[in-house]
Design goal:
Number of domains: 2
Shape: globular
CATH architecture of the largest domain: 3-Layer(aba) Sandwich
CATH topology of the largest domain: Rossmann fold
Number of helices: 11
Helix content: 40-55%
Distance between the termini: 50 Å
Structural class: alpha/beta
CATH class of the largest domain: Alpha Beta
Low-confidence stretches: 1-9
Number of strands: 15
Strand content: 15-25%
Largest sheet: 7 strands, parallel
Strand order of the largest sheet: 6-5-4-9-12-14-15
Mean pLDDT: 87
């Protein structure tokens, strides 16, 4: 009998409180769960799974959605950082390489909490450039602590940790961003509306990204064409406030909208 076969009976025999603790940890680690997945994982009925989610919501540990649950305070359509790291990898790598080509030695650069900007930071570290990165992204901080790039400096923006995005947000993070100036900022977003508004699912994330745009000489938008078909809950800024855009797999309509807003764009 394999290890997985031995573990399954244990999960199915958990008392409700133990099962709910495991469910809460799953949500914290992945950002969301589905009722169907809980049925399979714990061997419970849909009604039992929903009762567990209701109990966890009442205790403030999760927020129920249609068919599952997410971390409290987050929109149900916002995926975790870990999950987004696995999406559109080829496009993010092209954007990152193009972003590296825009960075000059001696510059300071804001890196936001997006996975796309993380890929850009990884390229910068790998190139060993003499730059200073300023970020609220914990994965970028981790990358810096484990990377052997003596020429690259990093300033971390503290604040309240969002487990879903692995980023620091809130008033302290925004004030820390506001206390610095940068030559460039690499920003990505949940979506761009038809009238040109950059959006994010969370208002606290939007606040930090907005501050980075305001405090950089040249804010640079990193997006794939699919971002122009989505939108988040919170407005970050109008696209006209960025200086340049790199687009992977960009649609012709997206390039026209950017041009109409006075934003130079390049497809990668």
């Amino acid at each position: 009998m394999g290890k997985s076969d031995q573990q399954k009976p244990d999960l199915r025999s958990l008392v409700p409180e133990e099962r709910r603790q495991r469910i809460a940890r799953l949500v914290e680690e992945t950002g969301s769960v589905k009722v169907a997945a809980l049925e399979e994982e714990f061997g419970v009925s849909p009604m039992t799974a929903r009762r567990d989610l209701l109990a966890l919501e009442r205790s403030g540990r999760i927020q129920r959605t249609h068919g599952g649950a997410v971390l409290p305070g987050f929109a149900g359509y916002e995926d975790s950082f870990r999950r987004r790291m696995e999406e559109n990898v080829a496009a993010k790598e092209r954007l990152a390489r193009a972003a590296l080509g825009l960075v000059e030695a001696g510059e300071t650069v804001f890196i936001d909490s997006s996975t796309t900007a993380y890929f850009a930071a990884r390229e910068i570290f790998g190139a060993g450039m003499r730059v200073t990165l300023l970020t609220n992204s914990v994965p970028v901080m981790d990358l810096f602590s484990s990377d052997k790039s003596p020429n690259t400096n990093l300033v971390g923006m503290g604040g309240t940790l969002r487990r879903l995005t692995l980023s620091f947000v809130g008033p302290h993070a925004a004030r820390t961003v506001g206390a610095h100036f940068a030559d460039k900022a690499f920003i990505s977003v949940k979506g761009v509306t038809a009238d040109g508004h950059l959006t994010d699912p969370d208002p606290l994330e939007a606040e930090v990204k907005r501050a980075m745009i305001e405090r950089s000489e040249r804010p640079i938008l990193l997006v794939d064409g699919g971002k122009f078909e989505k939108r988040g809950l919170s407005v970050i800024a109008h696209v006209s406030e960025v200086s340049f855009a790199l687009i992977a797999d960009g649609a012709e309509d997206a390039s026209k909208m950017l041009a109409d807003a006075g934003v130079e764009a390049r497809s990668v």
